[in-house]
Amino acid sequence: MRAMTLAGWALATAGAGLLAGCGGMKDGHDQLVRTCITEGEVPETCSCIVDAMEAKLSADLFKRSAVAIAREKRPVGDYILSLSDEEKMQFFEAEQEMEKCELSATEGD
């Protein structure tokens, strides 16, 4: 189901502990892509998802999201619920773009 894109990515990144120990990665985009890949999604899909986030989230929200999801290993769903309503709307808009990304078969569409 296409509506599961954000939820699928949230599940894929929920256990992203491997990235926290990697030194030298400073770019939030790369951190999020690598977190997504580490959890089993294909690189092209991860890049597509993170591109959508970067395009639709404010620069500040995108940076905070990279820290929370990739570095602090916070589950995406919990993180989004902690945001203001305005920031949640930004994620909703990002999800509309994420639906264009092709998830691998591991999600069970």
Question: What features would you describe in this structure?
Answer:
- The chain has one domain (2-12, 27-102).
- Helix content is 61%, strand content 0%.
- The protein is built from six helices and no strands.
- The chain has helices spanning 5-13, 28-38, 43-56, 59-71, 76-81, 85-98.
- The protein is globular.
- The N and C termini lie close together (5 Å).
- Residues 1-5 and 10-25 have low confidence and may be disordered.
Short overview:
The protein is an all-alpha fold and 109 residues long. The N terminus is likely disordered. This is Putative lipoprotein.
Topology:
Blueprint: H1 5-13, H2 28-38, H3 43-56, H4 59-71, H5 76-81, H6 85-98
Organism: Hyphomonas jannaschiana VP2
Keywords: Lipoprotein
Protein name: Putative lipoprotein
Main attributes of the structure:
single chain; 109 residues; disordered N terminus; mainly alpha; 6 helices; globular
Distance between the termini: 5 Å
Overall mean pLDDT: 78
Please give the count of helices: 6
Question: How many E-type strands?
Answer: 0
Count of structural domains: 1
* Shape verdict: globular
Low-confidence stretches: 1-5, 10-25
Content of β-strand: under 5%
Give a short account of the largest sheet: none
Kindly name the structural category. Answer: mainly alpha
What is the C-alpha radius of gyration, as a whole number of Å? Answer: 12 Å
The helicity comes to 55-70%
Protein name: Putative lipoprotein
Keywords: Lipoprotein
Organism: Hyphomonas jannaschiana VP2
